[in-house]
From TrEMBL:
It catalyses: tRNA(Glu) + L-glutamate + ATP = L-glutamyl-tRNA(Glu) + AMP + diphosphate. InterPro entries: aa-tRNA-synth_I_cd-bd, aa-tRNA-synth_I_codon-bd_sub2, aa-tRNA-synth_I_CS, aa_tRNA-synth_I_cd-bd_sf, Glu-tRNA-ligase_bac/mito, Glu/Gln-tRNA-synth, Glu/Gln-tRNA-synth_Ib_cat-dom, GluQ/Sye. Its EC number is 6.1.1.17. Residues 345-468 form the Aminoacyl-tRNA synthetase class I anticodon-binding domain. Keywords: Aminoacyl-tRNA synthetase, ATP-binding, Cytoplasm, Ligase, Nucleotide-binding, Protein biosynthesis. A motif ('KMSKS' region) lies at residues 240-244. Its main location: cytoplasm. This is Glutamate--tRNA ligase. Belongs to the class-I aminoacyl-tRNA synthetase family. Glutamate--tRNA ligase type 1 subfamily.
Length: 472
């Protein structure tokens, strides 16, 4: 019987869930789902000075919003410190670790000497073979692992291939601080082992950590999980991703009006591919996901692609769901006027959404696009809309009003016939009638077509707006 696949997502709660971490979570989620396994969530909160409750909440909320479900309850690493210390003692007892009593001054002197001689500024292992009998009375100590002195540490990485670290380039790194608290390398190995993690998929900035952690696995006689290290995400210019490139928290993308399915799809393509497929469902992603699809080369953020993909998913989305997202976003951003307007005109906005969706790239675009429906009176005109309402156009609209008022069956075809007949009688191109009419009704330069707007508003509201604009 094969062992159940267990992956884990293990962020440090020192800030928001940024996109690099979000992609790591996405890949682990897909790997677990594709192999019928589990993805566990471990919050690495041992750095109490930097770990915060809001950051923990942001991570969990970000995963929830992205639709990345994990198995069981979140595991808090800080609750396992006793276990970490226990393993450190086991390593000491087995002779795989030792106590180091070097002072800060001694360590500085050691580093300076190594640099002067052109060597790696490693600890010189002076306490490696000493015993408790050599210990200075009452002096604090750290616990160091006994790294191999010769040979190689080989990582059979599922993305990078075979990665070899020479023993001479590994030092006897600390696993327990002088205050008894565990170092990251030890805590991660102990937690992954105790959680039954079989596969570790993370960014390639952890590749060197993989070598150090393998030293601990080997010392404990534990199986080393399957490892895969993916290249980091870069900005459009190829430089390391930063805030100026869009290295924001997942919550910020929500506030900018992106849909979770867009983020799942787009982040999946940042470092993974399945043929030439660009747009795919989460179900397809899970079905197709494999280590073979992960790219060795770094990926670049492309906001134009992200927006176009979001536009696609907005067109595909259910109108009621989009309306609820619009209301939710106005609430989150404290857009009180827009929220009140949406709620007061829900039926009209829902009818307008099929007209607004083709023009929108984000939920914010939908909110802005719907503002003409609930705009407060008198209307506040955009400059381009005012430009369409010169004296001749206003006079023309005054003449059009009786024609519209006489319509009994207020529907698209009847309105079309009346307006085109009016344009012909006035010897005007139809656009010379439609464009000023749309501007007068919406106070905007960009909106759905005039027939659609007239139908949305209905006869009474349409004539009321026209009268207000033309002064009749």
């Amino acid at each position: 019987m094969s062992k159940q696949i267990i992956t884990r997502f293990a962020p440090s709660p020192t800030g928001f869930l940024h996109i690099g971490n979000a992609r790591t979570a996405l890949f682990n989620w897909a790997l677990a789902k594709s192999l019928g396994g589990q993805m566990l969530l471990r919050i690495e909160d041992t750095d109490k000075e930097r770990s915060t409750e809001p950051a923990i909440r942001a991570i969990i909320d970000g995963l929830d919003w992205m639709g990345l479900d994990y198995d069981g309850e979140p595991i808090m690493q800080s609750e396992n410190i006793g276990r970490h210390k226990e393993v450190a003692q086991q390593l000491l007892d087995a002779g795989h670790a030792y106590k180091c009593y070097c002072t800060a001054d001694e360590l500085n002197e050691m580093r300076e000497k190594a640099r002067a001689e052109g060597r790696n500024a490693f600890y010189d292992r002076r306490w490696r073979n000493k015993t408790d009998a050599d210990a200075p009375a009452g002096q604090p100590y750290v616990v160091r692992i006994k790294a191999p002195l010769e040979g190689e540490i080989v990582i059979d990485d599922k993305v990078q291939g075979k990665v070899t670290f020479k023993a001479e380039n590994l030092d006897d790194f600390i696993i327990l601080r002088s205050d008894g608290s565990p170092i990251y390398q030890l805590a991660v190995v102990v937690d992954d082992h105790d959680m039954g993690v079989t596969h570790i998929l993370r960014g390639d900035d952890h590749l060197t950590n993989a070598a150090r952690q393998t030293v601990i696995y080997n010392a404990m006689g534990w199986d080393v999980p399957v490892m895969a290290h993916t290249p980091l995400i870069h900005g459009p210019d190829g430089a390391k991703l930063s805030k100026r490139h869009g290295a924001l928290g997942v919550g910020e993308y929500r506030k900018m009006g992106y849909l979770p399915e867009t983020i799942r799809n787009y982040f999946a393509r940042l470092g993974w591919s399945h043929g030439d497929e660009e747009i795919f469902s989460s179900e397809q992603f899970i079905e197709w996901f494999s280590f073979e699809g992960l790219n060795k080369a770094g990926s670049r953020m492309d906001f134009a692609k992200l927006e176009n993909l979001n536009a696609h998913y907005i067109k595909e989305a259910d109108d009621k769901r989009l309306f609820d997202l619009m209301v939710g976003l106005t609430d989150e951003l404290s857009f009180e006027v827009q929220k009140a307007g949406l709620l007061a005109h829900e039926e009209t906005v829902l009818r307008a959404l099929p007209l607004l969706k083709p023009r929108a790239k984000t939920i914010l675009d939908l909110i802005t696009g719907a503002e003409f429906i609930f705009a407060q009176r008198p209307l506040q005109f955009e400059e381009k809309a005012l430009n369409a309402l010169d004296d001749d156009s206003v006079e023309m609209l005054r003449a059009l009003q009786p024609e519209l008022a006489a319509i009994e069956n207020w529907d698209h075809d009847t309105i079309n016939d009346v307006m085109r007949g009016f344009a012909d009688a006035k010897e005007l191109k139809f656009g010379k009638v439609a464009q000023p009419l749309r501007a007068a009704l919406t106070a905007k330069a960009a909106s759905p077509g005039c027939f659609d707007v007239l139908e949305l508003f209905g006869k009474d509201e349409s004539l009321s707006r026209l009268k207000e604009t033309t002064g009749v």
